[in-house]
Specification:
By secondary structure, the protein is an alpha/beta fold. The protein contains 22 helices and 19 strands. Keywords: Amino-acid biosynthesis, Branched-chain amino acid biosynthesis, FAD, Flavoprotein, Magnesium, Metal-binding, Thiamine pyrophosphate, Transferase.
Amino acid sequence: MTMMTGAQIFVESLLRENVEYLFGIPGGVVIPVFDALFDSPLKVILTRHEQGATHAADGYARATGKVGVCLVTSGPGACNTVTGLATANMDSIPIVVFTGQVPTPMIGNDAFQESDIVGITRPITKHNFLVRNARDLARIIKEAFYIASTGRPGPVLVDLPKDVAVTETEYVPVSEVTIRGYKPVLDGHVKQIKKAAELINASKKAVIYAGGGVILAGAAKELVQLAHKTRLPVTTSLLGLGGFPADDKLFLGMPGMHGTRFANYALSECDLIVAVGTRFDDRVTGNIKEFAVHAKIIHIDVDPTAISKNVRVDVPIVGDAANILAKLIPLVTRTDNGNWLKQIEDWKAQYPLTYKDSDKEIKPQYVVEQIYEATKGEAIITTEVGQNQMWAAHYYKFKSPRSFLSSGGLGTMGYGLPAAIGAQLGRPDKVVFDIAGDGSIQMNIQELATAVHNRLPINVAILNNHFLGMVRQWQELFHNRRYSSTCLLNNPDFVKIAEAYGAKGMRIRKKKDVRPAIEEAIKTPLPVILDFEVAREENVYPMVPVGAGIHQMIGGLA
């Protein structure tokens, strides 16, 4: 019989899950756990804010495919994880968040730094636990990792009272778990797969629409095989970028509010959509009444609740995308879609994704293109949210899965920098760039200290237009340029901030200096902030106004 405290069981259980990094911050009720971590081989990454810890765990998970883990204290520490949990939940990212809690006899008594974090996070987690007895801890941790990483992945929270952490009990390792009522369906219904193949083979103008589920399921290879065998063009959601090579002739870019014209026209005119691992977000469909009115829809998703949630579906297939595509590929044939591909090529030629470049000022799209060229498309790109996110999505040609990390569903400003920290730790072989706005970078800029302390060579490219750019764009287009509370002329000196934290800072004001600065940053073995002074009122185009169909785009050359 092996006797351990709850804190020791916590450490042992994480080691059995092959956890390498633990992101977090200590506090009063989790001191015993951090004490147990002191002599363990687990590497604790001390962040400067609990939100940063959750985003770093999230970035680690997206970059590696493993479960990200963080540990914080009770009350305010636990509450500060809410945004990170909601971000991971919306994008189906597997993280396990451990929160400290006051001793069980004090729960509900308004004890110091007590919060009902289980109640608070119930709507934004895949599952959560309150551990009431140390002897349950090993089983609960095993279940937490299992739930987070299987079926449709997602965040799981484990609330750990202080008395559970210090109580000594018999440690019984748990190697497998069976959870009543939780049986993810992975294989797909054979008759539905055959029906899908028949629709694909009979189609004349079909489109594959792939989402982040393709990447999470490891189905990118099968997606390419399906597209090439059938000659179906492919569009991906924002989170699906990298799931299909952007340099492939069949790639259409992403659809929706800021999608390419040819992707939006293709979805609007097609006769069949083969949707894989995606949820038909409202930013993709636009006015739902006008979305794909001529098309039948096949929807493959591991989450049955995602099917027919936002659009009607003709052939639902519940299961793992890689499994289902592997069964579907032998049943499909090369489609008779020559005229359709010709139409798409005409749209691409008529409405290319481009912008008006300038030698007098730096265009943000140019900066992203230069990052792509300098890294040969092999970097991991994280983003903040807003214009910087859309320019990164359009002008960095993602070639492989897990190379684009961004908050798609929740749209979390402040995500990119801590996510870059997690990505760099998980993939030290990769160059990592956070493409940021000058507004969003200030929401978690304190994590620069985390990057410096751990000597992580991440690069932060700030597209500095002195605006909350996307809101300003909406104000310009739909509110007569009344820039209410979006002007950031009192920004701090980002170069001095970088230097104050011990990082390197560079300010770039001329187009000719953009590429040399990027190359110098890549060679620097420390975090680097690149402050690009870009055109102030550049817009993201194309754009679909709110309430319009996705074929009704405005603006720009594209």
